[in-house]
UniProtKB/TrEMBL annotation:
Disordered: annotated segments: 293-320
GO molecular function: RNA nuclease activity
InterPro entries: NYN
Record-annotated NYN domain positions: 13-147
Originating organism: Rhodothermus profundi
Pfam families, sorted: NYN (PF01936)
UniProt protein name: NYN domain-containing protein
Coiled coil: none
Highest rank taxon of the organism: Bacteria
Length: 320
């Protein structure tokens, strides 16, 4: 049975990451020799996708707090965070231990006052719940969510409830971080699998529906579609003055028609698009094309690996 729902409004969201606490908790699982900063960058990237697709939270403001100079690849991780639209906030380790969490809290409260358009706040940490901050934000009418790698305490469960605690496992699975996922299995929120995607009809979004038709018609024979050449094809097809191709991709993802996954590459990482074959609009478009006797898959838009050129700009469908 198709899981259709009315399109909920997308909520403008601020993301606050206690990066140093997140790093330390990850080290407990994976040890120092792992490429931890790279994995955390993938985690935060997938988190933003998850928030948009599952919660309809679009991150427009992001900050990450740590003494980045203590990491050998500190400059690289700051660059990666900035490319994701997350501002690296330097908090020297020489300051008092609570300085980092205090700075995060102060900035979140300042955002509450200075950005009334921000409707939701998401906090990410290793084992700190930031419970007073989240409860204060809730009392001022904001939606909140917490992503914490360590199992939340009974008090956090009681005060926030399952709905406001993000299970890290489906996010780690989406990011391909299976070694870290193995350490978390059975230790966080008691669910054995990621919830199925929630599908929204595109009937009230004709531009996004036309974009989906283009993707299925021209590139539907591929398991994965490289995003950069796909955006180029969409730019040739759609009037940029009406709608940006990246925005159409965002809307398709929010409706559950597609998902985006990050891939590691050399010299640059890249993103691929994957169709959700169970989405009713995807099925309907495929059935319509199959019923057209003269339909042939277009090979002019071949997105095979040999034609793929990785995009160093880091520009992808994003609210940043």
């Amino acid at each position: 049975m198709d899981r259709l729902h009315s399109r909920k409004p997308i909520r403008t969201t601020a993301l606050f990451v206690d990066y140093e606490n997140l790093y330390r908790q990850t080290v407990r699982y994976l040890k120092e020799e792992e490429s931890i900063n790279g994995q955390l960058a993938d985690l935060l990237y997938s988190l933003r996708r998850y928030l948009l697709a599952r919660r309809r939270f679009r991150v427009v403001l992001g900050r990450a707090y740590a003494d980045f100079e203590q990491y050998e690849d500190g400059l690289a991780i700051q660059r990666v965070l900035a490319e994701q639209g997350i501002v690296p906030c330097m908090v020297p380790a020489s300051l008092d231990p609570p300085a980092r969490s205090l700075q995060l809290t102060i900035d979140a409260l300042h955002t509450l006052q200075s950005h009334p358009e921000v409707q939701a706040f998401v906090v990410v940490s290793g084992d700190l719940a930031y419970l007073p901050l989240l409860e204060y934000l809730r009392s001022h009418g904001r939606q909140v969510a917490l992503l914490q790698l360590a199992p939340p305490s009974d008090l956090v469960y009681e005060r926030l409830g399952d709905r406001l605690l993000l299970d890290p496992r489906p996010i780690l699975e989406h990011a391909g971080l299976r070694r870290l996922l193995t350490h978390l299995s059975g230790s966080t929120i008691e669910s054995t699998a990621a919830p199925p995607p929630v599908f929204a009809s595109l009937a009230d979004d004709p531009a996004a529906l036309r974009a989906l038709e283009l993707i299925v018609e021209h590139f539907g024979r591929y398991d994965e579609v490289y995003l950069t050449p796909l955006l180029r094809k969409m730019s040739e097809t759609f009037d940029a003055s009406e709608v940006e191709p990246k925005e159409l991709i965002n809307r398709l993802e929010a409706a559950g028609a597609i998902r985006l996954e990050r891939r590691r590459g050399f010299p640059y990482d890249y993103t691929v698009l994957i169709l959700h074959e169970d989405h009713p609009d995807v099925r309907r478009i495929r059935e319509t094309l199959a019923a057209t006797s003269d339909f042939e898959t277009d090979t002019s838009g071949d997105l095979s690996e040999k034609d793929h050129v990785e995009d160093p700009s880091g520009e992808e469908p994003s609210a940043f």
